Amino acid sequence: MIFMASFTLQKKIGHVAFIMDGNGRWAKLRGLPRHLGHKRACERLRDVFDCCVEFNIHVASFYAFSTENWNRPQEEIDHLMDYLEDFFHREIDFLMEKGIKVRISGDLSRIREQTRLVCLEAMEKTKDNTGYIANICLNYGGRDEIVKASKRIAEEYKQGKISLDSINEESFKAYLYTAGLPDVDLMIRTSGEQRLSNYLLYENAYAEFVFTKVKWPDFDRKAFIDCLKEYQKRDRRFGGLKNE
Ligand code: IPE
Ligand code: IPE
Ligand code: MG
């Protein structure tokens, strides 16, 4: 029997966002090709979903591929797409069983057709699930998202569909890839890097950031709980005064 330490999350988290980093270094440390780090990374997702269910976190975002990741060798990009497809094929029953709805944030038009179809299929199959949301950020860039949103707003304004007065911080969100999702409460980046790398720029405005040295392929329930414990120590003020 595996002993699982119990942990109760005291502070509600509506949206956790992960920057799944360190796959390449994880592989290199073991003398393996980088892509095997990505393979292992995709295999970690099931445990993370289980934790989200256990801790009642209804929305989880995952940075799978950034708009800057096109700068990598084509072979590595192909492997990443292969593993993403494998993930959806392997885990679709699990996602259904847990009531997880798949969303994709990002510009799918540049993603190879085969992968795009697998993503669209996963979204279609899970569209009526209401329990949880897995928001996969694929060919996602925070700046790209904001620019695209601005263009759509400009277009609607030009066509007379919206007025200038109706554009505000809240209504702007409806034009983002993440429309309808709550703001990020907790942003976790693995592997020790401490930067945002163009991730959920609008949505992370008041998120708490937790950086862990654990590389994503090693990110397990214990590592997740350590991040949650760190989050619980934070005092979120949103520009107001300290909660005494
Ligand atoms: C994160 O791991 C996965 C993607 C960016 C797709 P990396 O591939 O960036 O791993 P490191 O940072 O090189 O170790
Ligand atoms: C961010 O990681 C993107 C993903 C995890 C998909 P990177 O490894 O690409 O980011 P940088 O280059 O270290 O900033
Ligand atoms: Mg990296």
Low-pLDDT stretches: none
The small molecules bound here are: 3-methylbut-3-enyl trihydrogen diphosphate, magnesium ion
The major β-sheet equals: 6 strands, parallel
- Spatial strand order of the main sheet: 3-4-2-1-5-6
Helix content: 40-55%
- Structural class of the secondary structure composition? alpha/beta
The coarse overall form would be: globular
Estimate the strand proportion: 5-15%
How many individual β-strands? 6
Gyration radius over CA = 18 Å
Q: Give the integer mean of the pLDDT values.
A: 97
Instruction: Write the H/E string, N to C.
Output: EHHHEHEHEHHEEH
Distance between the termini: 42 Å
Count of DSSP H/I helices: 8
Primary descriptors:
alpha/beta, binds 3-methylbut-3-enyl trihydrogen diphosphate, binds magnesium ion
Summarize the structure.
The protein has 244 residues and is of the alpha/beta class. 41% of the residues lie in helices and 15% in strands.
Give the helix/strand layout.
Layout: E1 15-19, H1 23-29, H2 34-43, H3 45-54, E2 59-66, H4 74-98, E3 100-105, H5 113-126, E4 132-140, H6 142-158, H7 169-172, E5 186-189, E6 208-211, H8 221-233
Parallel strand pairs: 1-2, 1-5, 2-4, 3-4, 5-6
Helix pairs in contact: 1-2, 2-4, 4-5
This protein binds 3-methylbut-3-enyl trihydrogen diphosphate (2 copies) and magnesium ion.
